[in-house]
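Running this now, will post back.
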Amino acid sequence: MEHDSRSNRADDTRPRAFALLDEGNDAATRLEGVEALGTPSSSMVADERQIADRLLRVVLTDEDAAVRAEAIDALYFHGDRYVDELVSRVAAAVRRRDAAAGPETVFARWLTSDHAAYRMVGATGLGATGSPDATDRLREAFGDGDARVRARSVRAYAELGGDAVAPIRSLLGTRNALVCRAAVDALVTIGTSEAVTLLSTAADAGSERLRRTVVTRLYGLDRPESAAVLLRATADASPEVRYAATVSLVRLLAEGESVRGRDVRERVVSDRPSGDEREETTGADGTRGPHDGTGGADDPEDRPIGRLLHRVVSGDRGGHATDEARCHAAWLLGELGTATGDPAVIEWLLDALGHADDLVADLAAAYLRRVESPDLERQLRALAEDPGTGEDASERARRVLRRRKRRTADRVTDRALEYVYVRWPADYTEKHRE
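Update: finished.
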């Protein structure tokens, strides 16, 4: 429900800025109120919803274009969702007023406004209500002086079916992160071979920020070529790019349909460098270290792809991994562990036994039953007996121990070993000479 500043004036929960928006005040005073709502102080007690409702009302009803534009900027400060809400309200108002005109005409006109805030809403509105015919207007806005307009125009262009990649190329190289992300998102939406080629080139040869942006978004392009780009990026010189690529790769496996998990598994296992093939980079302090920047040259856990997968599983560096993606990362980590017997990978699987997600923890336990390692039973016993181990992790460790012992017993039976009664050592020798 919208809050009218002319009513309930004794209500101390309303920001003082509301009073400045009264229609009886001049434009300069109303502008001051809008600016205050766009940069609220800690003393402002009204909640964000109250403020957004008041700003929306200003945009839709105030008679001064500059005040309305400032209200749009204030809404943008509070979040993109309020700009989207404004687009919906404007479209609904236009349809109520004149069903024949349609909101697309209004938003196209706003895209040519002298106020950047109006152009931003115009680009957003065309993306939401426009037709493919609007792509030409949006392309013209790729060179707008306001970064928000450029970003929203390129996204809307792709959403409406624009598929020309050349106009987007220059936006990839911009220093503005907002525009760069939008250009990458547009190419992912377009999804043609030409778009994939441009994204691949950017991921291989772009700036660090561009490479990170591309691999972060690439899971949304469900094509085998995406997996190839992401696998290459897991060996990038930047630790942030490598981690983002790994998260994106497991999300592509988890959410897409065109990439086979078996193919990725084979690459993960075959591309793993040996312990003495450490990549090094120069850190900010001029020293040399492992290529993931997490330890010195003597770090026993310097296993690039395994370490990255473990970080996705544990979530110790944030990122955008979903629960399903973490499960796929645990699966790849388990495959890597069983294929290589790498002690570091086994340690990470042991660590995952206490994961908050039961499916991830159970996956780790399932692979630990299969791993070949002379020290694993000792490690499992130590984990199960450690008072600092959580109850669930302790129980899984004991269960894995029981399963491994049972499997060993089954193997002995299956081999059908020949037991020979030996009275003298010569008896066994004589038996096998026959």
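The chain has 23 helices and two strands. More later if anyone needs it.
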